[in-house]
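QA checklist item 7 of 12: single-chain prediction sanity check.
[x] sequence parsed
[x] length recorded as 265
[x] structure emitted
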Amino acid sequence: MYAEEIKDSFGTLIGVNQQRFEKRYPTLKNKTMKKVSFIAALLLSGGLFAQDISALDTPQESLLQNPFAAQAELARPMGINCGCAGDKNRDRKIMAFGFSFGVNRSNLQFGAAQENGDQIVNGMGYRLGVVSELRLGKRIVLSPKADLSFNAGQINQGNTEYAVSASSLELMGHLKYRMMRSNFSPYVLAGPNYRIPLANRNNNSVPTSSDLAIDVGVGLDIPLIGFKMSPELRYSYGLSNITNSDEFSDLNHHNIALSLIFTGK
């Protein structure tokens, strides 16, 4: 509607000016009026283009500044926090829960030389666990964990094999420091690990007691739609002797574990 009014007004103005110009300068009518008409057409086109541009809705967030905004807008109506850069609700959840599974390798070590010639055989095991995360800041996360660990370490004494902590419950309190503020971030961790043996009462196992270890490790937080995946590698260093047996004295239990952790968002 506004464009038609502009055209009519502009046409009337051009017609009036053209008549005045012809009366005053009849000899220059053809050449000059062609130039005037060309300039008028350019001005009219520019005005209409500016009007069309102003009528468009201005986007709230430029895709050039945030290429993930479209992905977040598609996920939000379904009640999903994608955790990507365009999700404005990311990192607002203070606490999250999840589970983990992975493999571990025992690293049993004698604290002192054994005079009876005992040999340690370390092997691969596996683990299952539950995980929780409490966000203390943009980069610091408290991560309590509980793992059921199945170990393959043993001691060979002559022709007899004795299992060492064949299964144990590990209660960990890890403190994570994320290297980046974004959801996709590598991290380092450290914290105590209290280990409780569950199966060491038969004749083919070394009697062990609960012990305390210190865990250190690295990992990587990978945000996905609806959850987060974190591969994690950590080393557990046993601080105390796990057995008071006269036959197996001064035995320390260390292990290395590779876990895949899944937590909600």
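[x] summary fact logged: The longest strand covers residues 95-110.
[ ] second reviewer sign-off
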